[in-house]
Amino acid sequence: MNNSKYEITLNGLEELKKELNELKKERTEVIETIKTAKSFGDLSENAEYSTARERQTFVEARIQDVEDKIKKAIIVDSKHNKNIVSLGSKVEIMQVNNSNHTTKIVELVSSAESDPLNGKISQDSPLGMALVNHMVGDEAVVKTPQKEIRYRIGKIL
Question: Who is most buried in 33, 34, 100, 140, counting CB within 10 A?
């Protein structure tokens, strides 16, 4: 775990806290499963025990990761400058090198909050990096191995 700060929106932090609570509940369940599996006897051939121990290792590592992120969290104010795209911005974009010129709204979030299917784009993604520090009317260019995709920024919400 590094010592750097972790930028996140308030919603993202709340989601992390919710995940941490769920993981702690799961930790208790896994411990009970291990106790039950131990009662079956020979641990070397006990699939239930092995599976529960693997799950425990995963849950403990995830708890540690989430706690570290919460501890290092720096909340990015969503009431930021509406003139420049930054973390927390909701941005209306239109693909300009596309014949149907559809618009969509994306929200720039931290990588932990990323959910592209719901319009939450990581600031570290190619589209996120292309949009950051641009203004309304600017074109943002996303370079892919096959082509360049150009987006015009319509609004910063």
Answer: 140
| pLDDT band, residue 80 (cuts 50/70/90) | low
Can you give the pLDDT at residue 9? 82
Nearest residue to 14 (alpha-carbon basis) of 54, 58, 55, 73: 73
CB 118 within 8 A of CB 139: no
The mean pLDDT of the chain is: 87
Partners of 75 in the β-ladder: 8
107 conformational bin, left if phi > 0, alpha if psi -120 to 50, beta if neither: beta
Q: Which residue is associated with the tokens 């706690």?
A: 67
Of 9, 156, 14, 144, nearest to 91 by C-alpha is 156
CA distance 41 to 32: 15
Q: Contact 24/63 with Cβ under 8 angstroms?
A: yes
Q: Which residue intervals of the chain are DSSP H helices?
A: 10-38, 47-72, 126-131
Write down the pLDDT at residue 1. 44
| Lowest mean per-residue pLDDT among 20-34, 56-70, 81-95 | 81-95
Give the Cβ contact number of residue 54 at 10 Å: 11
Phi then psi dihedrals of residue 20, to 5 deg: -60, -45
Instruction: Tell me if residue 149 falls in helix, strand or coil.
Output: strand
